[in-house]
Amino acid sequence: MPKMLQAARYLLGSPGASGFGSKSTAEEVTAACPDLGSLTAIITGATSGIGAETARVLAKRGARVVIPARSVKAAEDMRARILAECPGADVLVLHLDLSSLASVRDFARRFLSLGLPLHLLINNAGKFSHGQLALSEDGVEMTFATNYLGHFLLTKLLLGRMAETAAETGVQGRIVNVSSSVHGWFSGDWADYLQLVTRRKIPYDATQAYAVSKLANVLHTKELAARLQEMGADVTVNCVHPGIVRTRLNRDREGLITDLVFVLLSKLLKTIPQAAATTCYAAVHPRLAGVSGRYLADCNEALQSPAAASRREAARLWQASEDMISGSSSQQGSTKERNI
């Protein structure tokens, strides 16, 4: 489709093959599945922005929602907001710092100890670091650690429960990785970049770091989909670009120029309910049953960047990720890290 026609469709909110488009909201795309009372969903980054709207809508539809957060107070505040709108909602709060592999393992242990089923895992949390280079406690560039590596380990630790839940209930499990079209802004070698920037051999560029983390989300989706199929697990995984919305993520970059750009681009920005639509569509819409390994935008399948389309790079990233998390595997305790 010519780019001009794509742009016109986006601005007009014209529906695609799914029946939804850029102007569709999370409530609209979940209208076909009003009762999600049998489902349990973990949603990272659900204390504000797109994640908070995703949690609100799924809870409104009846799903049990687990909110992991670095700030337990922020998560409790979000829980209170959901209960104010939906008094009967089942919302759990647990501590999780995605930049810390030890914290991810601790969260997984605590969740699994509850004995709850797990149908949906929505890896939504995102960080845009700016200023100087920062490393996680595991020595990983902070944006990559938070946006990708923590989610990689979280998914690995919870996949067994998801596969068990699907087998026992007959309800297909779904994993949603929230990426961004910004993943296409990086076309180099992600491994070389991470090595060089971590060792301070090249200047730190926050946008490049963010793009690399979002590229990793797409590659993770591709490789995980293939491995799930090989396992025979009744679990799917898809990746979404929510669209550009003025959330807390980009409000960190306030200033006259930033504000002016947002005013000029206001017609291109989504509201938070619109930005959460593709995530919710991928998580629960009946049309996505059995669909795995896809990249979605505006609730329709979209093109990913050439760098994100390589199965070889996806497998390479997977192995590198295994190597990165193995450095602190002695801290895993009783949590079994499933080989997939």
Task: Write the SSE topology.
Blueprint: H1 3-12, H2 26-29, E1 40-43, H3 49-60, E2 64-69, H4 72-85, E3 91-95, H5 101-113, E4 120-123, H6 142-169, E5 173-178, H7 190-198, H8 206-231, E6 235-241, H9 248-251, H10 256-264, H11 272-275, H12 277-284, E7 295-297, E8 300-301, H13 311-326
Parallel strand pairs: 1-2, 1-4, 2-3, 4-5, 5-6, 6-7
Antiparallel strand pairs: 7-8
Task: Name some characteristics of this structure.
single chain, 340 residues, alpha/beta, eight-stranded mixed β-sheet, 13 helices, 11% strand, globular
Overview of the molecule:
The chain has 13 helices and 8 strands. The two termini are 37 Å apart. The chain has 340 residues and is an alpha/beta fold. It is 46% helix and 11% strand. It has helices at 3-12, 26-29, 49-60, 72-85, 101-113, 142-169, 190-198, 206-231, 248-251, 256-264, 272-275, 277-284, 311-326; strands at 40-43, 64-69, 91-95, 120-123, 173-178, 235-241, 295-297, 300-301.
